[in-house]
Amino acid sequence: MRQAVPLRFGPGYLRLLLVAVAVLLWPNPAGAKVSYRISPTMRAGNLVSVGVEIRLKADAAGHVTLDLPDSYGGEKEHWRHLRNFAVVGARADAPDVHTRVLTARPGALITIRYDVVSAYAEDPNATDGNPYKGPIVRPTWFAALGETWLATPRGRDDEEVSFRWSGWPKDWHRVSSADPPHGTVAELAENTLLAGPGVRIVDRPITGGTLRVAFRGKLPVADASFADSVQNIVSAQRRWWGDQAGPYTVTLFELAPKPGSTSSGGTGRRRGFAMYATSDVDAGNLVRTIAHEHLHNWSPRRMGAMADGDEERLDYWASEGFTDFLTARTMAWAGLWTPQQFQGNLNTVLARLASSPARLAPNSRIRTDFWKDDAVGQLPYDRGMVFALLLDHRLRALGKGGLDPALKRMRDHWVHSPAGAKPMLRDNLIAALDQAGLDARPLIARYIEAGEPITLAPDLFGACAVVDNVMRPAFDPGFDRAQSRAKGIITGVDKRGKAYAAGLRDGMVRTGFVSGEEGNSSITLAYRVKDLDGRERVIEWKPEGASSIPMQQVRLTGDANACRQRFGGN
Fold this sequence. Notes:
The chain is of the alpha+beta class. The protein is 30% helix and 28% strand. The chain contains 14 helices and 24 strands. The strands form six sheets. The protein has a six-stranded mixed beta sheet with strand order 4-7-2-1-11-13. A hairpin with a 2-residue loop joins strand 15 and strand 16 (209-216). The longest helix has 24 residues, at 374-397.
């Protein structure tokens, strides 16, 4: 008689079985051709990784090319944060480290599964800047940008996609800019996610939809006040453009404090944006960042395509600089900035540009040094904004109503162009200006490509304000900021400078930022510091260097109502 042998299944078989069961039990939402869901792996109550499952069908030839996350935000090889890659329903080949070629029966259902691990061993802090290193998978929270964790099927950006959270602890609050209603693969690839028991979510109505703002950590502004600011800005900018509807999601989390460092930043998403800040950052900077990032829904996303790879940096003067121009324009137009705030913002840009060590750099340097040199990284923002003001003045002199109508023509051309024939950003700008009777080619060659300084006309803002040519002391903080950030203590204080005269000394620890503007020597710089004997106090001084530099500054000459209208484009 033959003895029965018990079946024994190894962990690999069990994993395959669980995936197969998930394929059967996980319904594909109506209309979605590609489905994603993410679930947590917890250990002793702590999050250790995030599981991703993708369901899609092979094409008519039985193929799917899957692009793993690679380069984003100056960081590379995000695929290194993916583990345990597995495929059910197809053979997977890896021609390189960031590509998987799947082969199956034509139209076959394929399930892909992998785990996402953290790019950070600790919570991101002030010295990390924007957290682009990769996903943040911490014991009690999770945050990520789509470009750093998402594998996507090549050539299927416009296909409908569904996204859902699955199996997360009940006390973990979760938000994603890709939450329902469903969008496309491309929209999911540009999402922002934030989850954790400490996440706070505030809802607000906005023009054409609903706003969700998710917070984590200690921040320099109350949740409700910040949500109100986002609500006002999003609604106003949607009205200015006269289009866009649907939900909008903002995530904002605290960067861990680091002695001697203050940081804030953000990045635009398809249906939202992600923000990061230390708790001591100026709340006004957060509001300005909101306005800038929300405008990326149009500039450049609905105005022109960007080049691939490093080449896109050559047009940052248009994509980022023009967005800064529109930030000031729309904030003044909606009455969300006073004329004095508009003036202060522009004067800071003009002072920072005039004092920048990169002010004369050709545009080609932005391609090579954007992520390597802070001054070069700031250059396309400031140069592009001032160039937009130059174009605005030239168009007004031609009786064309300024730059605003040309930018809206760019949007209209983009929207009405076929999917496979969308214009490039620079080409679309030149064409829109040609239509208005202004040949921008020689201006771009002179002021953008060659880097020649731009001189704005005194009557740039009509009778509202005058652009003065002035001499100002060069911006000099009075100590070595780079070394201070690296060491975590104040270092390299110049004994001949105003910081030393005010009481700043080597060895102090900066515990908070009080006031000051980068590049603007006329604004008092103030830090909260821990003294050498351990006491805390505030030290303030004018960051004025020994030499003076020429620059332009705006002086108000009209009444507040006239200036609000003029600064708003009227």
